[in-house]
Amino acid sequence: MFGIMILIGIKIIVEFKIEHPHSRNSLSAWEKVIKQTDYKSFNEMRRTFPSMDYVGHRYTVFDISGNKYRLITEIDYTAQVVNVKRVWTHAEYSMKKNADALRRGKL
After folding, report:
1. Local confidence band at 3 (pLDDT 50, 70, 90 cut-offs)
2. Which of 30, 31, 38, 89 is 20 to 30 A from 44, comparing alpha carbons?
3. How far apart are CA 44 and CA 51, in angstroms?
4. What digits encode the pLDDT tens for the residues 8-34?
5. What whole-number distance in Å separates Cα of residue 81 and Cα of residue 35?
6. Alpha-carbon Rg of the chain, whole angstroms?
7. What's the predicted TM-score (pTM) here?
8. Whose CA is closest to 1, among 31, 29, 41, 30?
9. From start to end of the chain, where are the E strands?
10. CA distance 81 to 71
11. CB distance 7 to 35 below 8 Å
12. For residue 95, how many C-alpha atoms fall within 13 Å in the half-sphere facing its CB?
């Protein structure tokens, strides 16, 4: 199948960019790559984003801006859909309540 990934939850990214202006360039670059590529698997996507991780058997987490921010997504490779769930600062990502929710698949 030739196409591009469908990005859902862009409003979450837009709002984060407003609150954290230093994240704009990195998040915009991530969006551009996602919208221009059709990844068929986690391993294929990881070739482009080597620091991404799979957490809680549900979420794919991207390190953004040299690990200053964490972009949490759910990805359906068959449907070619990336659903943005959260964007957190590194400090927010490290908070126990957020780390626990992520591991339990409760975002």
Report:
1. low
2. 89
3. 13
4. 999 999 999 999 999 999 999 999 999
5. 10
6. 13
7. 0.91
8. 41
9. 6-8, 53-55, 59-64, 69-76, 81-89
10. 15
11. yes
12. 9
Q: Kindly give, in sequence order, each residue whose CB lies less than 8 Å from that of residue 95, ignoring residues fewer than 6 positions away.
A: none
The residues, any chain, with a CB within 8 Å of residue 57's CB and separated by 6 or more, are: 105
Residue type present at position 91: A
What residues contact 25, with CB distance under 8 A and at least 6 apart? Answer: none
Task: For residue 48, give the amino acid letter.
Answer: T
User: Which residue's structure tokens are 């992520």?
Assistant: 102
> How many alpha carbons lie under 13 Å from residue 92 in its C-beta half-sphere?
11
| Token output for 5 | 């990934």
What letter does residue 9 receive in the DSSP assignment? -
